[in-house]
């Protein structure tokens, strides 16, 4: 349920929806989403994906623009509101997810590529996104599909240019593949954004405070390097979602991290 390439040509829609859900802290497997969308070997359209999104408590909207600049402004606006956006690119043949914009680069998840994360300047994204109807006189179309949670936002993944580049590296793809294995348990012991207060502690600060204790149990087993790497993964995910912990949840949060450090399979 993490971030990895699609295994076939037709499942790009469920994968794109999975990544949009993950950006909001909602974990779902692409096979479950394919079943909910009733996707076939011919793929899934926006109505199919909207059906699946509704089952996960979200609304997949559709906007249509007929000029590039208004489309760009609309896309940036949704990202600024912390809403991931699905685009069907290359003449409506392939689904991708846009999760952020950093300076001149849009952060796009495209599961045709081994590293999944792409950093695309607007000129490249516009070319891929533009749908050109037949006939020279017809205006191009730019359809975008923001994913809107019906309830309170549980989290928002702040994928910057630097974070996307980090996850693209071959040596860090184990973290991308196991992303959901970290997200779900960490969110269970974190404050939702709307309830974070002065008394809550940034998750990364909590990790620093308990680092030695979290690593002690594995050092005796000769697995210290792996444990340190897992703890780095926990910190990276917690920072990406800007997670915080309420005082009464700190013991539970430390216990959760201890289980992750000892049990997450990096080959998952």
Count of separate structural domains: 2
Number of strands: 9
Percent of residues in beta strands?
15-25%
- Share of residues in helices: 40-55%
Low-confidence stretches: none
Q: What is the CATH level 1 assignment of the largest domain?
A: Alpha Beta
CATH architectural label of the largest domain: Alpha-Beta Complex
Number of helices: 12
- Write the H/E string, N to C: HHHEEHEEEEHEHHHEHHHEH
Q: In angstroms, what is the radius of gyration? A: 19 Å
- Characterize the quaternary organization of these chains: single chain
CATH superfamily of the largest domain: Cysteine proteinases
**Quick check: average pLDDT?**
90
Shape: elongated
> The CATH topology of the largest domain, please?
Cathepsin B, Chain A
Topology at a glance:
Blueprint: H1 12-23, H2 30-37, H3 46-55, E1 58-60, E2 63-65, H4 68-80, E3 85-89, E4 94-102, E5 105-109, E6 117-121, H5 122-129, E7 142-149, H6 161-168, H7 173-177, H8 179-188, E8 201-202, H9 203-209, H10 211-219, H11 224-240, E9 244-245, H12 250-263
Antiparallel strand pairs: 1-7, 2-7, 3-4, 3-7, 4-5, 5-6, 8-9
Description:
The mean pLDDT is 90. By secondary structure, this protein is α+β, with helices and mostly antiparallel strands. A hairpin with a 4-residue loop joins strand 3 (85-89) and strand 4. It has helices at 12-23, 30-37, 46-55, 68-80, 122-129, 161-168, 173-177, 179-188, 203-209, 211-219, 224-240, 250-263; strands spanning 58-60, 63-65, 85-89, 94-102, 105-109, 117-121, 142-149, 201-202, 244-245. The termini are close together. The chain folds into 2 domains: 12-155, Alpha-Beta Complex (Cathepsin B, Chain A), CATH 3.90.70.10; 178-263, no CATH class. Helix 10 (211-219) runs parallel beside helix 12 (250-263) and helix 11 packs across helix 12. Strands 1, 2, 3, 4, 5, 6 and 7 form a 7-stranded antiparallel sheet that branches. Strands 8-9 form a two-stranded antiparallel ribbon. The longest helix is centred in the C-terminal third of the chain and has 17 residues, at 224-240. It contains 12 helices and 9 strands. The protein is elongated, with a radius of gyration of 19 Å.
